[in-house]
Specification:
Blueprint lengths: L4 H16 L3 H4 L1 H8 L4 H25 L7 H20 L3 H29 L5 H14 L4 H12 L1 H10 L1
Helix pairs in contact: 1-5, 1-6, 1-7, 3-4, 4-6, 5-6, 5-9, 6-7, 8-9
Amino acid sequence: IAGNKIIVSMLMLAGLASLIVGNAHQAQMPEFAHDLGHGDAGIKYSILLTGGAAGALFAGIVLESRNLLPPRPRTAFLLVMLWAIALGIFALTTHYAIALAAIFAAGFLNLAYGSMNQTLVQLNAPEQIRGRVIGLYNMSAHGLRTFAGITVGFGGSLVGVHWSLALSALA
């Protein structure tokens, strides 16, 4: 697959997003919830987690019910950039409502770009090795999340979770 630019670019895109940001911000959600409000951080935490999940659910329903985003590499890159912007806004805002809207958008965009990346890999993988190529994609997209704990998590211990996530999203 080394000669297939679409597959290689989707593997790299998924891998870099997973490696640099991944889902490490979810483990830091209690601190985000605490910092965003003076009330019960537990309820605010639950609502933030639900907001991200609701965004992904909404994306699944909307994207499956309409042909809004045909699979194109350029669109996948745009969706990842928008996802990073949404996470950056979430990380840096001090307003709970904006944070909730941003995490909803991030959930939507995460599902949208992940689905599009995987679709492009599946459509372009040679039939005789399609399963192995999809396995490689999944390792890149999900397996590299382990190291996002270093970029976002360890970085959070150095500069705080807000700046750590914002800088990771910027990268």
